[in-house]
Amino acid sequence: MKLICIGRNYAAHIAELENEKPTDPVVFLKPDTAILLKKQPFFIPDFSDDVHYEVEVLVKINKVGKYIDRKFAHKYYEQVTVGIDFTARDVQRHLKAKGLPWEKAKAFDGAAVVGEWMSKHDLEDVNNINFSLLKNKTLVQQGNTNLMLWKINEIIEYVSKYFTLKIGDIIFTGTPSGVGKVEANDTLTGFIEDKQLFSIKVK
Q: Can you say whether residue 61 is alpha, beta or left, with left for phi > 0 and alpha for psi between -120 and 50 degrees?
């Protein structure tokens, strides 16, 4: 099982980090060891002083596929949720400055929060999902999948050119603006519409 992550998929987030708008989806991977275990807190790693939360809509692949046409992509997932792509921003800045891969900033243990899965059929339109993140009961991020530069089916088509998608693979579809630093004793709570799908403590 692999975690396939899409970066720079919301224009406002690209602007807030002063990144260049990509012409193709930015793709990176996290190993399954990055998944934060259920009911476990997120421990800020000792190698970073600037870990950021990034809330995202996630989809779970339910059948094997390669070179999937976007018009058939909807058949390859039935469940969605929200999660967090934790990013050691200081480490990432250092790596980007040297032209190096991001894995140490993105793929460390616990860096991927996966919420409770829900059926996509419980939502009217996967391309119009409201999602949000509360930090200590204060709204810090909110987004809607209609603002994605690349929609879910386009993402599935694109990544399946490069990687065979397997049952259980998870796609992180990108974060909206509002990312920020986590501190010890924070509580982070994620929602699709008004449904809470995760709540974690930061240590």
A: beta
Domains (ranges, CATH) in the chain? 3-201 (3.90.850.10)
Question: Which of 26, 1, 7 minimizes the C-alpha distance to 85?
Answer: 7
Q: Which tokens go with 35?
A: 């998944």
Extract the tokens encoding 63: 């059948």
d(CA 47, CA 38): 23
pTM of the model: 0.94
CA distances from 171 to 1, 56, 139, 152, 163 (A): 11, 10, 24, 9, 12
Residue 152 burial by Cβ neighbours in a 10 Å radius (0-12, 13-18, 19+): buried
In the chain, which ranges are continuous DSSP H helix? 11-16, 89-97, 103-106, 152-162
CA distances from 28 to 33, 85, 106, 131 (A): 15, 11, 9, 22
Please give the chain's pLDDT, 203 residues, in tens: 999 999 888 876 655 665 676 789 999 999 999 999 998 999 999 999 999 999 999 999 999 999 999 999 999 999 999 999 999 999 999 999 999 999 999 999 999 999 999 999 999 999 999 999 999 999 999 999 999 999 999 999 999 999 999 999 999 999 999 999 999 999 999 999 999 999 999 99
C-alpha 2/C-alpha 7 separation (Å) is: 16
